[in-house]
Design brief:
There is one protein chain. This protein has helices at 5-23, 30-37, 41-47, 51-72, 79-94, 103-110, 118-140, 146-152. It is mostly helical and 153 residues long.
Length: 153
């Protein structure tokens, strides 16, 4: 059964991000991504012009998923419960087997010398979105200077 273009793209993004997460963004080859997605390298390049474009798309997709998870996060109004709940959520996320750090932090570190790389812009946008979500939660819990506290966290 043939996959739709959208399904193939999704499979590529899932395969790429899984490999990036385990091995790092720079160590993974397009051949490995194509093999993991069960497509030819030619088909991969029909969806993404370059590895840089694929890295950016995988991070953008990951950011959308992460922000959606944050939106579903229970935000208690009580200050202590909010901070405890948030920290517990982060701890549970980081306690996954073979956790090797957040993708956004990794990409910024791995691509530190490539200031104009599109993935760095996506990482900055993601950081801003997470800070805004946290500032809104802190404001709802009546924590003073919620933007400053969100940046500190």
């Amino acid at each position: 059964m043939r996959r739709s273009r959208a399904q193939t793209r999704r499979n590529i993004l899932d395969a790429a991000y899984g490999l990036f997460w385990r091995q790092g963004f720079l160590r993974v080859s397009m051949d490995e991504i194509a093999a993991r997605a069960d497509i030819t390298k030619r088909a991969l390049y029909q969806h993404f012009r370059s590895k840089d474009d694929l890295i950016a798309a995988a991070l953008a997709h990951s950011s959308e998923l992460a922000i959606e998870r944050l939106r579903r996060f229970h935000r208690p109004a009580d200050r202590e419960q909010l901070i405890d709940s948030f920290c517990t959520g982060l701890t549970d996320w980081a306690a996954k087997p073979r956790w090797s750090g957040g993708g956004f932090t990794r990409v910024v570190v791995e691509l530190a010398d490539l200031r104009g790389h599109p993935a760095r812009a996506i990482a900055r946008q993601h950081k801003t979105a997470v800070e805004k979500w946290l500032a809104d939660a802190l404001a709802a819990a009546r924590i003073p200077s919620p933007r400053d506290r969100a940046q500190e966290v």
